[in-house]
Every structure is written in structure tokens, then in C-alpha cells.
Design a protein that fits this description.
The complex is a heterodimer of chains A (379) and B (137). Chain A is 6% helix and 56% strand. Chain A is mostly beta strands and 379 residues long. Chain A has one domain: Porin, CATH 2.40.160.10. Chain A has a 16-stranded antiparallel barrel. Chain A is globular, with a radius of gyration of 21 Å. The relative contact order of chain A is 0.15. Chain B is globular. Helices cover 39% and strands 18% of the residues of chain B. Chain B has 137 residues and is α/β, with parallel strands linked by helices. Classes of the chains: A mainly beta (379), B alpha/beta (137). At the A-B interface, strand 1, strand 2, strand 3, strand 4 and strand 5 of A face helix 4 and strand 4 of B.
Chain lengths: 379, 137
């Protein structure tokens, strides 16, 4: 913690002089967070949380330069260390050129964040929301690294509609992605007996369309991310046919009140061929949703609550592995524009997300209580 | 006289004629002369990057102070921390640059005078051929 605050003060002093000078410098921003997680029940998210774990650290630094009024270039590196997950060093989160030709047409190219649902492009930016953990069934912190961004291009813009009808914002993208080396996808495959020789990857086209309604602060939207993958197993081949990952969402932000909800259905096929045998296919059909709301009690204190649920359609729902339900209560306090802290409690029922065999060797209990305390610095 | 004084006091107390604590100004290159509250809010929250006439909009802000707070309250509807937080979210997602922020109105004014497309706000009227006051509807 002392280290965090020391870095915070040093960086805030060094960047304070960059604003509003006659000579324009590239903008630099970043954040560092340190979380302490404690559970009663199972170990969670690859950490030894039953004993209390400080093993969740995140940091990011970005630089942006506005070359012309319409052209911006920038990049961000990100570090996630989440118990057994996360990169051993810095990951390139995004690196792009952004050319805004008109209000209704812009182009981003390079490594570009994927706009999907309400929070996909923001989910690794902790200062951007009240919660310590976003709803695990849709924005799993241990699985997020794979689908955060893609190598390719995005067309985006905002189209004004006739008066009193609001506006439409769109994002259409096409690119390539690769599974993140150290996240929950790879660990889950490993626990299912699939050992990869290299990281699978594929294409990931998709789009997002959101309607900024005439009701101030009220947004309706939907996204579809498509992806496929091919990879080489130690003893065979792996492929995912093109998968549709649709989601629908609604958001309302007005003055001190905020609320949102999102629903996802994912139908995913995995084809595996081992030891020279033909491909055999497995199907998983899952549904997830959340409803969240909160209130800014003061300029410094925000409180929120959400309910989220996940289940495997058609599966035996008396088996906790086939569902995940979570009540979350969260508070965030901003000491000033640089320092903040969060405190969050979870009442989790089911083991359908975030729980792994490697740190729960004696099996999983059906219910888990979780407390997360987090401190953050932003500049 | 007594009636006028009473009316003036009533109007002041109940905000019938609220005095604007800030004046929205643009670089003189900007061709629009008025802007809706909603469009102004969109520009200052990253929702829009252009004025209605199609020209590029460059929002700039004060770092703090009564003019800044009053502007955020009246046109953005968010306190400083949430205003800054929403911009930071766009920055971390790779979607925008933070608006330039200035310590004083004089610095902000100087920037707007020199930057085509710039839009900001000040607390009291300033004489300058390089800026124009926008009417907010």
C-alpha cells in the first residue's frame, strides 16, 4: 500500500505540469489498484481467498497524441495479476490510429478495443466504475483478457435522428484475436484435459448499435461478437466454428442515479480431434443476465447493488456447477481526483464461474461469501 | 417602489431570473451562433465531436472553481469527479483524449482564441475579436 501511494504522489507531481502549457505534450494517464479478497466457502478467481489474498493487482498506462483535429494516435499497456492468472508482464491493451472524418464516421485501426455490451471495452479500467468485480457471468475478470480487443479495424460514429428521436451510435469491426495465455479459458480447457501446443486464435467480426433515446440518460442497445478459433493440441486438433455472441442492454443515468441491465445468450460448439480420431463436437448453451443500480450519495461516496445469474440451458440445475447467482453490494469512496477505495460484498450461490479445481482440490462447496477491499490511484 | 423591490427579491429567491454564472464561448472560426443544452452536454462528455454545422469541436475546461462547478451543474449534470471519471473511462478504452484543462480563465481564453473549433466557458464577459459567445437554448 505504501508503495502504491508513493508511486501515486510521484506520478501526480510529474504530470501536473503537462496540462495547459503552450507547448502541447502527448497526454499520459494511468492507474494502479491493489485488492484484498477474502472468502468463506471456496477459493475464488485463482487466489487463495479462504486465507485472505492480496494477489489481485492491476495497472495501466496510456499515451495519446492528437496529431490533427481529426487524427489521434495512442497506446495502452496493461498489467493484470490475479492469483494464478494474468500475464507475467505488461500486455499491449490497445494501440491504434483513430481518424474521425465526420460525426457519423470514424475509423480506428490497429489493436482496437471491442465494443460489446455495456462494459467490454471498459472492463479492465477499474477507475471507470463503482464495482470491484463486474458481474462474473458476463464480464468475468478471470476470462476477460481474450476478448478485450482485436487486431483489425473499426468503423464507428454517431448518427443524429430527426428531432426528438435521439441518436444512434454504431461500431462495426473486423479483426483477429488470440486466446490470452494465462486466463480462465486456458485453465478451463486444461482442467477438461485439453493441452495446447500453441494459443488458439481466429477472426472476430461484430457490431454494436445503441440508441441514445430522447429521454436524457436513457440508452438501449445490442451487440453481436462473432469469433472462431483453431489451435493445435499436444495430441490433436481443436476448432471452434463461428460462434455468435449476442447481447442486449439498457442503461439509465440521471443526475445521481444510475441503473443498467444486460442479457446474453451464448451457444458455443467446440470440436476436438485427438490421437488421429475424427472431430467430436460438444455444445454449450448458456444464458446470463444482470441488473444493477446505484446512487451517488455525495460527490465522494457512491453505493450500488447488482444481481446477476448464469445457467446452462437444459442442464441439471440441482448441480451447482451448472449455475451461478450473485448478490453484490458495493461502495466506492473517492478521496480526491487521484485516490479512491472500494469495498464490496458478494453472496454467491453455485460454482458455474470463477471457481477452479487447482485451488479447490477437495471439491467445491455450493455457496461462497466474498469480501473485496480495493485501493486505487489514477492520474 | 416597494412592489418592485418585493418582486425582485421574490424573483431572486425563487430563481425566476437566475443569473448565469458562466458564458459559453467558441473560437471565432466556429460558424454556429447558438447551441442546445443537449448538444453542449454531448460535446463536453465525449458524445459528440462536431458542431451542428459539421465543423470539429474541441472542448476545453477549467480545472476547478465556481465557474467550472456551475457549468458542470447547469449543463452537464455531473459533479467534477463523475465528469472526470466518465472522460477517464473513454481514455482507458482508447476512444478519446481528455479535454485540455486550465488553471485560470485567462489561460482558457487564450487557448480558445488561438484554436479553431475550441469551445469553453468563462465567468464574466471578455472583449475579444477572436472569440464569440454562444447562446445556449
Amino acid at each position: 500500500m505504501k508503495f502504491l501511494f508513493t508511486i501515486g504522489f510521484a506520478v501526480s507531481l510529474s504530470t501536473g505540469g503537462l496540462v495547459a502549457q503552450d507547448i502541447r505534450w502527448p497526454q499520459f494517464h494511468g492507474f494502479v489498484t491493489e485488492a484484498f479478497s477474502y472468502t468463506g466457502g471456496n477459493n475464488y478467481l485463482g487466489m487463495n481467498t479462504n486465507a485472505g489474498s492480496p494477489a489481485w493487482i492491476e495497472a495501466a498506462v496510456n499515451g495519446n497524441e492528437q496529431i490533427t483535429d481529426n487524427l489521434r494516435i495512442g497506446a495502452q499497456v496493461h498489467l493484470t495479476k490475479l492469483g494464478a492468472f494474468g500475464a507475467s508482464g505488461l500486455d499491449l491493451d490497445w494501440a491504434l490510429a483513430d481518424f474521425r472524418i465526420k460525426e457519423w464516421l470514424g475509423v480506428r485501426a490497429g489493436k482496437v478495443k471491442i465494443r460489446w455490451g455495456l462494459y467490454n471495452d471498459l472492463q479492465d479500467a477499474d477507475p471507470g466504475y463503482v464495482w470491484s468485480l463486474l458481474p462474473e457471468p458476463i464480464y468475468a475478470v478471470d476470462w476477460r483478457a481474450t476478448n478485450l480487443s482485436q487486431m483489425g479495424a473499426e468503423l464507428y460514429g454517431k448518427v443524429g435522428l430527426p428531432s426528438r428521436v435521439g441518436a444512434l451510435e454504431y461500431s462495426i469491426y473486423y479483426g483477429y484475436y488470440r486466446y490470452a495465455a494465462h486466463d480462465g479459458y486456458m485453465e478451463t480447457y486444461k482442467e477438461e484435459g485439453l493441452n495446447f501446443r500453441d494459443l488458439p486464435g481466429g477472426i472476430t467480426p461484430g457490431f454494436d448499435l445503441r440508441w441514445r433515446t430522447p429521454v436524457k440518460g436513457f440508452t438501449l442497445g445490442g451487440s453481436v461478437m462473432l469469433y472462431n478459433a483453431k489451435g493445435n493440441l499436444v495430441n490433436g486438433s481443436f476448432r471452434e466454428p463461428l460462434t455468435y455472441w449476442p447481447t442486449y442492454y439498457v442503461q439509465y443515468n440521471r443526475k445521481k442515479f444510475f441503473a443498467s441491465a444486460q442479457y446474453v445468450r451464448l451457444v458455443q460448439y467446440n470440436d476436438v480431434a485427438t490421437d488421429g480420431q475424427p472431430f467430436s463436437s460438444s455444445l454449450q448453451d448458456t444464458r446470463s443476465w444482470f441488473v444493477m443500480t446505484g446512487y451517488n450519495l455525495t460527490n465522494k461516496l457512491r453505493l450500488g447493488v447488482y444481481r446477476t445469474q448464469y445457467f446452462v440451458a437444459g442442464a441439471d440445475l440441482s448441480n451447482p456447477a451448472n449455475y451461478f447467482r450473485d448478490w453484490t453490494f458495493s461502495g466506492r469512496y473517492d478521496f480526491n481526483v487521484h485516490f479512491y477505495c472500494k469495498l464490496e460484498g458478494h453472496l454467491i450461490d453455485g460454482t458455474g464461474g470463477g471457481f477452479y479445481g487447482f485451488d479447490n482440490p477437495n471439491g467445491l462447496l455450493p455457496q461462497t461469501k466474498l469480501l473485496v477491499a480495493k485501493a486505487g490511484f489514477i492520474f | 417602489m416597494k412592489t418592485t423591490l418585493l418582486l425582485a427579491t421574490f424573483s431572486f429567491l425563487f430563481g425566476l431570473f437566475p443569473a448565469k454564472a458562466q458564458i459559453v464561448i467558441v473560437n471565432s472560426s466556429v460558424r454556429v451562433t447558438e447551441i442546445s443544452k443537449s448538444d453542449l452536454s454531448d460535446i463536453f462528455t465525449g458524445g459528440s465531436t462536431h458542431f451542428k454545422d459539421g465543423s470539429h469541436a474541441i472542448p476545453v475546461t477549467l480545472k476547478s472553481g465556481p465557474t467550472h462547478e456551475s457549468f458542470l451543474k447547469e449543463y452537464i449534470g455531473r459533479p467534477e469527479k463523475l465528469f472526470r471519471g466518465s472522460w477517464m473511462a473513454l481514455v482507458f478504452a482508447g476512444q478519446a483524449n481528455m479535454p485540455e484543462a486550465f488553471n485560470t480563465e485567462a489561460e482558457l481564453l487564450r487557448f480558445i482564441e488561438s484554436k479553431p473549433g475550441a469551445i469553453g466557458y468563462i465567468g464574466k464577459p471578455e472583449e475579444s475579436a477572436k472569440i464569440r459567445v454562444l447562446t445556449v437554448k
